[in-house]
Amino acid sequence: MPHKIIKLKSPSKINLALWIKEKRPDGYHEIETIFYENENLYDEIEIEFTESNSLSVEISFIQDKLNKLISKNENLAYKAALLFFEKLNVKGICRIKINKNIPLEAGLGGGSSNAAGVLKGLNQIFSYQLDESKLLILSETLGSDVPFFMYGGTCLGKGKGEHLIKLENKLDLEIEIKKLPEISVSTKWAYEQMDSRGIAAEHSLQIRNLVNAMKIKDYNLFSQNTFNDFETAVFSHHPQLIDLRKNFLNEGYTISGLCGSGAAVFGMRCRDKVTSPLYLI
Predict the structure, then answer these.
(1) 114, 122, 163, 165 — which has fewest CB within 10 A?
(2) Residue where one domain finishes, among candidates 126, 149, 166
(3) Looking at 43, 79, 145, 179, which residue is catalytic?
(4) In this predicted structure, what is the pLDDT of residue 198?
C-alpha cells in the first residue's frame, strides 16, 4: 500500500429524545437518548496515507479560521487517527482534511462524527483489519457520542450514550437545521445547569412511545413524545432560540426542538402525508 486516498461523508445527529438523569460518581451524567443520524448535514473528510518508516499525522480544516480555533491536540479526529495507528502498530504519513459544514457548539455531534469517520476511513485503507467490535472499543475512548456514529441510523443510547441498541425506524423524516451564528452553547455549561434543577423528570413512557411509533410508523404518536431535558435551561438563557423554534412551526414543520445541548434548533416533519397537530418538544 504505497499511497492511498479516500473521501467520505461525516453526518450530523439530532436527539429525538434526551433524558438527563443523575450525575455519576465519575462526574458524567447518566442519560437515555434516541440518536438520529442526519445525513443531510455533513462534513467531508479526505484521508491520504503514504507508507513511511515513521509516523506522522497531519490534520487541517478547509476553513482556515478553524485551524486557528481548534488545536490539533483538541481535535477528536486527530486523536482517532493516533489511536488507530497505535492499535495496528503501523507507521506512515497520514494527512486528514476536513471540510466543516456542521456548526461548532451546536449539539450536532460534528467532532464525534469526524472521529468516527477517521476510524472507519483508516480501517478501509487498511483493508478492514479491525472488526466492528474492536472499532467500537476504540470509539468509546474518544467520546460518548462517537460510538453512535460508528453505528449510524437510529439508536437508543444509555449510560453516557455509548451503550447502544439499534432501532427500527420506518418514518421518512424531513429535517432542517438552523443555528444563529451569535449563539453557542458549551456542553459542559449545559450539564452544569442540569445539576441545579432538582429532581429529574421521568421519561420512560415517552421513550417507549417513540420506539414503538418509529416501529409501527405512527407519526402522530411520535410527534407527541419527542423531548429534550436541556431545553428549559438553554431556551431561558437564549430566548432567541424560542423564536427560531416558532419560525419552524410557522413554516409547516410539525416538530421543532433543540439539537442535543444546543445551540442549533431543528424542524422536522414526515414526508408521508399525515394529519398531525403542531407539537413543541
Answers:
(1) 165
(2) 166
(3) 145
(4) 75
